[in-house]
Amino acid sequence: MSGGHKPMRVMVCVTAQRQCERLIRAGSIIADSGELSVVHVAPMDQPLLYGECGTDDAQALDFLYRTARAFSADMIVEHNDRPLEAIAALAVKIGAQCVVLGSSVAGTARPFGEALAARLPGIRIHTEL
Question: Considering the entire predicted model, what is its pTM?
């Protein structure tokens, strides 16, 4: 994408749902040929391999991994019972300039996004509807 936009380092946060593909696509547009990372933070007790967890979650994560690769993005999967802290730490570690989150029907992403923004001053938080 051109038109005066500067390439960015973008981190996209996904859950184990196929519809998170839209977040990866949005992150790619925001990155504008910059670097793109896709992140999934799972609770410590949630196994992520095919033989260990519900096949729907495993298949969704595999689909998201393939989608990330199609956009030349890396995918980071981390186990952590404190997703806010884990995502903030990863954003700092990779030097993200923007973090893309999804919104939920219940609107839970908004308070999460606000809490994340408070932890990451100077990093843009983009909530994709």
Answer: 0.87
